[in-house]
Design goal:
The chain is mainly α and 384 residues long. The chain has a domain of 206 residues. Helices cover 67% and strands 5% of the residues. A 4-stranded mixed β-sheet has the order 1-2-3-4. The radius of gyration is 60 Å and the shape is rod-shaped.
Length: 384
């Protein structure tokens, strides 16, 4: 405002006044641009910190996923290769980040210098205008030309400041990107390390047979086919042994195969022995357990005894026939037996049971239908 009043009082040309005003505005714009560049740099730094926090969060999630994944063994090789690449890129990114950070600092310094130069140019322009006003009217046109040149120079410096501020903003953005890349590379290396650890642990849980995997438990392979601390261990034993081992699995109990088809006379016999017969040959007439009066036999033995008893009964009692001849023919021909004293059959013609004696077939009990009653017999006895 003071410079405008000066121009009015001294009567300096309107052109010089306008040029000077534009120079002032350009200087102010340069200062504003420098401040905007600084604000952009601060925003870029904040964005870089946020990106770092987000990457850390993603890395934490990746670690948790790696710990619980059921396919760690399949993907571990790819993760290890990616980790090696990420580690190499990390080193390069760190170097680029340091260079970008130095460039950003230099650019910011240049922007500040340009802003200072713009302010100096504004002061010089005002001084030149005052000098031009004090000169005589004969040299007014020369002074005006000199002032215009200085204003032009100030404008050039302001533009240089604006260009430097833009370059500084770009450098800050590049530095932020480099910092983000460096953080991401570091997180990738950490994730790869965790994936490798998960892969190793998964392999141990799957196939280790030399002892426990963690503080208490054994691997799946050990429980399946055996291993240190599982095979022939009290209260343990692999699934394979419990299914097929011929002797005790854990020092006390036998396998399912032993109880089903083994020769376990000392343990009251296997299922096969109780079905077919005792001993190692599963003999029908060999006791499964015990001896003498305490002997116990297989189901096959008792089935044979029952069959023999039925056959013995059929050999004694022929069944129902119409006469002696048909009864004897059945026994001799159809049943493959022999007719012996004491054999029986039912005579369906006379409705009586007949028994074989040394002299032939006789009724087991006489028909008493035609016998005298008790009263008649008593009367006849008295009469006689």
């Amino acid at each position: 405002m003071a410079s405008t009043s000066f121009f009015k009082n001294t009567g300096t040309s309107a052109t010089l006044q306008t040029t000077f005003a534009e120079s002032v505005e350009a200087a102010q714009a340069a200062q504003t641009a420098a401040e905007a560049a600084q604000t952009a740099a601060e925003a870029a730094q904040t964005a870089a910190e946020n990106a770092r926090d987000t990457a850390n969060s993603h890395a934490s999630n990746a670690q948790q996923s790696a710990a619980s994944t059921s396919t760690a063994e399949t993907s571990s090789a790819a993760s290890a290769a990616a980790a090696a690449t990420s580690e190499a890129n990390s080193s390069t990114s760190e170097t680029n980040s340091s260079t970008s950070e130095a460039n950003a600092s230099t650019s910011a310094s240049a922007a500040s210098t340009s802003a200072t130069n713009a302010a100096t140019s504004e002061t010089n322009a005002a001084a030149s205008a005052a000098s031009a006003a004090s000169n005589s009217s004969s040299t007014s046109s020369d002074s005006t030309a000199t002032a215009a040149d200085r204003v032009a120079t100030a404008n050039d410096r302001v533009q240089t400041g604006l260009d430097a501020a833009a370059t500084a903003a770009d450098s800050v953005s590049t530095a932020a990107d480099a910092a983000t890349a460096s953080t991401a590379a570091s997180n990738a290396a950490t994730s790869a390390t965790n994936a490798a650890s998960s892969n190793t642990l998964a392999q141990q849980w799957a196939s280790q047979t030399t002892g426990i995997v963690d503080s208490t438990e054994y691997a799946a392979k050990a429980w399946a086919i055996g291993g240190t601390g599982v095979t022939t261990t009290a209260g343990a034993g692999p699934a394979k042994d419990w299914a097929t081992k011929a002797t005790t699995v854990d020092g006390t109990e036998h396998s399912a195969k032993s109880y089903a088809a083994g020769t376990l006379s000392a343990l009251n016999g296997s299922a096969k022995q109780w079905a077919l017969g005792g001993g190692g040959s599963f003999d029908r007439d060999t006791a499964v357990t015990g001896s003498g009066v305490t002997a116990e036999y297989s189901a096959k033995y008792w089935a044979n005894q029952a069959a023999n008893s039925a056959k013995d009964f059929v050999d004694v009692y022929y069944g129902s026939f119409t006469n002696d001849t048909t009864a004897e023919n059945y026994q001799l021909n159809d049943n493959g037996g022999s007719v012996n004293v004491g054999d029986l059959y039912f005579d369906s013609t006379n409705n009586v049971m007949r028994v074989r004696s040394f002299s032939g077939w006789n009724n087991v009990a006489e028909d008493t239908t035609n016998f005298a009653t008790k009263g008649f017999s008593t009367a006849m006895a008295i009469a006689l």
